[in-house]
Amino acid sequence: MSNKDIKKLTDLAKEKLGKQITRDEALRSFVSAGIMNSRGQFTKPYQNLGRVVKNK
Predict the structure, then answer these.
(1) Is residue 4 part of a domain?
(2) Is 29 within the bounds of a domain?
(3) Domain count for the chain
(4) Is the pLDDT of residue 34 over 70?
(5) Which of 12, 17, 24, 56 is the most exposed place for a label (fewest CB within 10 A)?
(6) Between the CA of residue 43 and those of 26, 31, 47, 48, 54, what are the distances in Å?
(7) 39: left (phi > 0), else alpha (psi -120 to 50), else beta?
(8) Residue 23 has pLDDT above 80, yes or no
(9) What rounded mean pLDDT belongs to the chain?
(10) Is 42 a member of any domain?
(11) Is the dihedral of CA 32, 38, 40, 43 positive or negative?
């Protein structure tokens, strides 16, 4: 990987980290990753996260 590629990836990561997302966008992302189901509940492999994540 070239320095140019690393710079592009770094810039992309900074852009994504600075973007505000909605609750629905976040839920869709977690659902697509298999972390949560469509009802907003953690899937079986991630149930321990439910113990430490505070619901709002």
Answers:
(1) no
(2) yes
(3) 1
(4) yes
(5) 56
(6) 15, 9, 6, 10, 16
(7) alpha
(8) yes
(9) 87
(10) yes
(11) negative
The reply to whether the predicted model has a pTM over 0.90 is no
Over residues 36-44, the mean pLDDT reads 92
Report the alpha-carbon distance of residue 8 to residue 24 in Å, rounded.
28
Question: Does the structure show a pLDDT above 70 at 55?
Answer: no
Tokens 């113990």 locate to 51
E strand spans, 1-56: none
Tokens encoding 4: 């140019």
Q: Which amino acid is at 29?
A: S
Is it the case that residue 56 has pLDDT exceeding 60? no
Residue 13 lies in a domain: no
State the DSSP code for 40: S
Q: Where are the alpha helices (DSSP H) in 1-56?
A: 3-18, 23-32, 49-52
Q: Round to the nearest angstrom and report the end-to-end CA distance of the chain.
A: 41
